[in-house]
């Protein structure tokens, strides 16, 4: 069973994606979706050896809602900076964010969240995978940005991923 | 009743964005800026197609938008990978 | 009720269009390459998001459910950070980003600049 379905969540996601793509509820689509959902994880399992350990799948949904809300707020902030802040008053900063997360899936989720939310962008990861390099569009106080990332997003992800 | 007018305004905004992007594409200072502009153009084009689909009243245009979102992303990553590594498929 | 929905959808659409415009304008206005990366990744995504939301609700109002809007939204939300990351890495490697990167603090270099880079 484990060898046939290396990533059960990926199988479910691919099945759902296929239905969204086909845009119709038919039995034939279900068969095709299950075939794809079985074959694709099998073929790609060499590049994704470990299963992510998710402790609380429901908390992940709550996290997605929080991020979606922050994405909308982020746009108002960036729009304000782009439109009204004089060019020479924009204080951009590089912010190294030391990571407490260790799972690659959790780190990439955090990196994506940082990019989509207020005025920050993930630029790079350190070679040993323990520090994220974040670029802030306008951050007069870089330490506050780092603390907010750690308390608002990373702490939640730590609770979700075991 | 107001929606068609809002749609026209939206289409105008996206069209103006695309013109700005074209201008940027011509005057971009660096190669990376050009890739970024092409990426933005792809996203704007998706918005244009979706909005036109609402006006036309069919779901057919969404298929175009799906394909465009796929190819636009792959294109951006391929350009970046070429600049980063010197080849795309290793 | 219909009028209210009409108003709400129109407001979302106009707002989204303005955001997309601001994103493209930011691309022209912001002075440094790393700053320019910020505007389009966020603002244009919300522009498309608005169009997709209105499209989905419009179809729903016409009596048919369309799921492809959800697919496009998911796809854009997943791919926007990845392309931004790739562009940032390209800027860093080519030395077009602001040159004074901070130290990692762990002894290892940033992945893009490390001598034997892992696959990006």
From TrEMBL, chain A:
Location within or outside the cell: Cell membrane
Assigned keywords, A-Z: Cell membrane, Membrane, Transmembrane, Transmembrane helix
Pfam families: MNHE
Keyword Ribonucleoprotein: no
Record membrane topology: Multi-pass membrane protein
Keyword match Transmembrane: yes
InterPro entries given in the database record: Cation_antiport_E
Chain ranges passing through the membrane: 6-23, 30-48, 60-83
Family assignment from sequence similarity: Belongs to the CPA3 antiporters (TC 2.A.63) subunit E family.
Protein name: Na+/H+ antiporter subunit E
Species, as recorded: Tabrizicola soli
Lineage: Bacteria, Pseudomonadati, Pseudomonadota, Alphaproteobacteria, Rhodobacterales
UniProtKB/TrEMBL annotation, chain B:
InterPro entries with a match to the protein in the record: MrpF/PhaF-like
Record-annotated membrane-spanning stretches: 6-23, 35-54, 60-84
Membrane topology: Multi-pass membrane protein
Keywords: Cell membrane, Membrane, Transmembrane, Transmembrane helix, Transport
Pfam families assigned: MrpF_PhaF
Entry keyword 4Fe-4S: no
Keyword Membrane applies: yes
Cellular compartments annotated: Cell membrane
Source taxon at top rank: Bacteria
Family: Belongs to the CPA3 antiporters (TC 2.A.63) subunit F family.
Protein name: K+/H+ antiporter subunit F
Originating species: Tabrizicola soli
From TrEMBL, chain C:
Descriptive protein name: Cation:proton antiporter
Organism from which the protein derives: Tabrizicola soli
Pfam families per record: PhaG_MnhG_YufB
Signal peptide range in chain numbering: none
Keyword Transcription (UniProt): no
Keywords for the protein's UniProt record, in alphabetical order: Membrane, Transmembrane, Transmembrane helix
InterPro entries: PhaG_MnhG_YufB
Chain residue ranges for the region called Disordered: 97-120
Domain of life: Bacteria
Bilayer-crossing regions: 12-31, 43-64, 70-88
Coiled coil (residue ranges): none
């Amino acid at each position: 069973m484990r060898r046939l379905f290396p990533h059960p969540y990926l199988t479910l996601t691919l099945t759902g994606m296929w239905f969204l793509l086909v845009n119709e509820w038919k039995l034939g689509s279900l068969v095709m979706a299950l075939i794809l959902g079985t074959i694709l994880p099998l073929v790609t399992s060499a590049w994704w050896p470990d299963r992510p350990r998710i402790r609380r799948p429901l908390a992940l949904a709550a996290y997605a809602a929080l991020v979606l809300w922050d994405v909308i707020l982020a746009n108002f902030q960036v729009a304000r900076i782009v439109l009204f802040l004089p060019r020479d008053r924009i204080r951009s900063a590089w912010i190294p964010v030391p990571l407490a997360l260790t799972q690659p899936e959790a780190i990439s989720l955090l990196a994506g969240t940082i990019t989509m939310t207020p005025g920050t962008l993930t630029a790079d990861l350190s070679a040993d995978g323990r520090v994220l390099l974040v670029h802030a569009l306008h951050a007069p106080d870089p330490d506050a940005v780092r603390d907010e990332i750690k308390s608002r997003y990373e702490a939640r992800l730590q609770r979700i991923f075991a | 009743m107001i929606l068609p007018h809002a749609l026209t305004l939206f289409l105008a905004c996206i069209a103006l964005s695309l013109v700005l992007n074209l201008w940027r594409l011509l005057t971009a200072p660096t190669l990376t800026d050009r890739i970024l502009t092409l990426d933005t153009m792809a996203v704007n084009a998706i918005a244009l197609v979706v909005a036109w689909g609402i006006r036309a009243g069919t779901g057919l245009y969404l298929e175009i938008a799906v394909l465009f979102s796929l190819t636009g992303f792959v294109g951006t990553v391929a350009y970046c990978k070429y600049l980063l590594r010197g080849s795309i498929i290793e | 009720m219909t009028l209210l929905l009409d108003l709400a959808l129109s407001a979302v659409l106009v707002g989204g269009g303005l955001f997309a415009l601001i994103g493209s304008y930011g691309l022209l206005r912001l002075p440094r390459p790393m700053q320019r990366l910020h505007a389009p990744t966020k603002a244009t995504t919300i522009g498309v998001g608005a169009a997709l939301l209105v499209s989905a609700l419009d179809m729903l109002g016409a009596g048919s459910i369309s799921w492809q809007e959800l697919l496009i939204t998911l796809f854009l939300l997943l791919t926007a950070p990845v392309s931004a990351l790739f562009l940032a890495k390209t800027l860093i490697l080519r030395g077009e980003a602001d040159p004074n990167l901070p130290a990692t603090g762990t002894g290892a270099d940033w992945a893009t600049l490390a001598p034997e880079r892992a696959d990006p």
